[in-house]
Amino acid sequence: MQIYLPIAEVSVNAFLLLGLGGIVGILSGMFGVGGGFLMTPLLFFIGIPPAVAVATEANQIVASSFSGVLAHLRRKTVDVKMGIVLLIGGLVGAAIGVQAFAALRAIGQVDLLVKLCYVLFLGIIGSLMFVESLNAIRRSRRATGPVTTRKKHNWIHNLPFKMKFRTSGLYISVIPPLIVGLFVGVLAAIMGVGGGFVMVPAMIYLLGMPTKVVVGTSLFQIIFVTGFTTLLHATTNYTVDMPLAVLLLVGGVVGAQIGARIGVKLKAEQLRILLAMMVLAVCGKLAFDLLVMPSELYSIAATGGHG
Amino acid sequence: MMRWILLCLVLALPALATQAQTEEVVAGLSQNSVSITANFDGSEILIFGAVKRAAPPPVDDGPLQVIITVAGPSEPVTVRRKEKRYGIWINTDAVDVDAAPSFYAIATSAGFQDVLTDVEDLRNQVSIPRAIRSVGAPMTVLDSESFTDALIRIRERKDLYQLNESAVTVAQETLFNTSVTLPANLTEGDYIARILLTRGGKVVDQYQTTIYVQKVGLERWVYTLAHEQPLIYGILSLVIAIVAGWLASAVFRYIRS
Asked: Do A250 and B244 touch (CB under 8 A)?
């Protein structure tokens, strides 16, 4: 069944969109990630204009994160105070990101920027996660090996403006979370992702937050940052496609619940290694496209408008 | 003074020509509006007509030929070219095209070269390259032509530019018809349909009409809201997202318990 998307101005198969939403939803439910980093490139691939894909994906992430955060709120695994600090940074970052996006689009380099961001971040995070989970699997095989503990005190703990985060059991300066939030906000606006795949490791390794509150807090922050990004894109670029978002999120929220069931059955290390491989695969594909001569060297964009 | 008289003469010439012509085109469309609904999957428009004559058809100018074009609204576009820099392919040169129709279809009754001379094409802007208006390329770009070629190539691949030679059937030098396929990825606007009668490569008469392509129903509503009330639209999108997220969570919690 074909459906004409009024903002994207293309006609696509509605079941294809539901299916894409469902598959990405299953993966996001299994791994506890937003899935934006997979969905946005997939939308490019089926012919949705990049500007519409990025803006609409932000809207869809609001739905999946909200669905996820409700579960975490019930389990009391959301550090609201930390979330708000991250959020302040995130909103500033998103505003900067949208401006950068507009400026780069004017000189025709936005595709390059988006793809380079993907290659860079997916490459780094994917490799780190892969190595880390391989080590974890090896450790669990030996079972007797000494468990390495994280260094609790580093330079981050010497910064001023300290604040108490009761849920996380932390007493640290507000500067690192503000910077992490800012950085993720920029990424969210430019890449059309929630930024969970950057924020989760940053919260664990940089801020030293306990793992159990990390996912919920990151989802809490993502809802507001992507919501804000959606509004910015809707009012400045008119690129949020509501029917597209609805189809994706119907598939997505259902898929996420199924994925969460599957995720319970797998071991954490196996899950992480699977996710790492997936991240690296997406990264490899994008890097390959940048390095190999494209079949069409030319591209068309509307002058000054969205395209 | 002399210049004014000349100018008047030049302006009056086409009028004189119209009086002198013996063949006139009368045409119709199967539909003069296309509604883009939620399940819009392209459309086909039948264009038909007849030639009205006061005298028997002239014999020495060659057979009667018909050219039918349908053009979507024109808009300025930027064509960019990738080049390998620092090991990766990035956009470097860009050429602005002042006006390129979003859709352009030509149907002719014989080979394009046979129905229209180059001079007449230049005057009436019929062929695809002529329908695109490109004025200046930056000094750094020497081969601006390859950019317009690329524009045509890319849009032809998406069926947005079509050249269908010998697609117009002409019966007894009087009746003609063709159908134009509008693809699913159509943009809104006023589409101009032109019908040109030619003999010996020269335009004898032409007729022009408009096809209104617009979104209707839900599509119209969403599009208008997004452009006229973007803030409300954005908030509405967020509300839908949050309700959907909550519903999914609630439904699955109900199933589990």
From this structure: yes
Look at B231 and A249 and tell me if their CB atoms are within 8 Å.
no
In this structure, is residue A304 part of a structural domain?
Answer: no
Cα–Cα dist A113/B133, whole Å: 31
Does residue A19 belong to the interface with chain B, where contact is any CB pair within 8 Å? no
The minimum CA-CA distance between A261 and chain B, rounded to whole Å, is 11
Question: Does residue A183 lie in a domain region?
Answer: yes
Residues 238-267 of chain A whose Cβ lies under 8 A from any Cβ of chain B: 238, 240, 242-243, 245-246, 249-250, 253-254, 256-257
Domain count of chain A?
Answer: 1
Alpha carbon distance, N-terminus to C-terminus of chain B: 96
B171 residue type, one letter: A
Bridge partners for A3 per DSSP: A12
pTM comes to 0.73
> Measured in whole angstroms, how far is the alpha carbon of residue A116 from the centre of its chain?
15
**CA distance readout (Å), B49 to A260, B23, B200:** 63, 13, 20
Distance CA A254, CA A18 (A): 10
Q: Would you call A293 an interface residue with chain B, using a CB distance cutoff of 8 Å? A: yes
User: What distance, in Å, lies between the first and last C-alpha atoms of chain A?
Assistant: 25
Q: Which domain holds residue A279?
A: 2-146+161-291
Is A19 inside any structural domain?
A: yes
Q: What is the pLDDT along chain A (307 residues), one digit of tens a residue?
A: 778 887 877 888 889 988 988 888 887 777 766 677 778 878 877 878 877 888 888 888 888 888 778 877 887 778 888 888 888 998 999 888 878 877 777 776 777 777 788 788 888 888 887 888 788 778 777 655 444 445 555 666 666 677 777 777 777 777 888 888 898 888 877 777 777 777 877 887 777 777 778 878 888 888 888 888 888 888 877 888 888 988 888 888 888 778 777 777 777 677 778 878 888 888 888 888 778 777 777 777 766 543 3
- Rounded Cα–Cα distance for residues B134 and B65 (Å): 29
With tokens 């030293």, the residue in question is A208
* A302 belongs to a structural domain: no
- In 3-state terms chain A splits into helix, strand, coil percentages (rounded to 5) of 70, 5, 20
Check: CB of residue B121 under 8 Å from CB of residue B130.
yes
Between B76, B81, B90, which is nearest A298 by CB? Answer: B81
Instruction: Report the alpha-carbon distance of residue B180 to residue B30 in Å, rounded.
Output: 11
Cα–Cα separations (whole angstroms), residue B104 to A143, A147, B46, B213: 69, 68, 16, 14
Judged by a CB distance cut-off of 8 A, whether residue B133 touches chain A is no
How many CB atoms are located within 10 Å of the residue A276 CB?
21
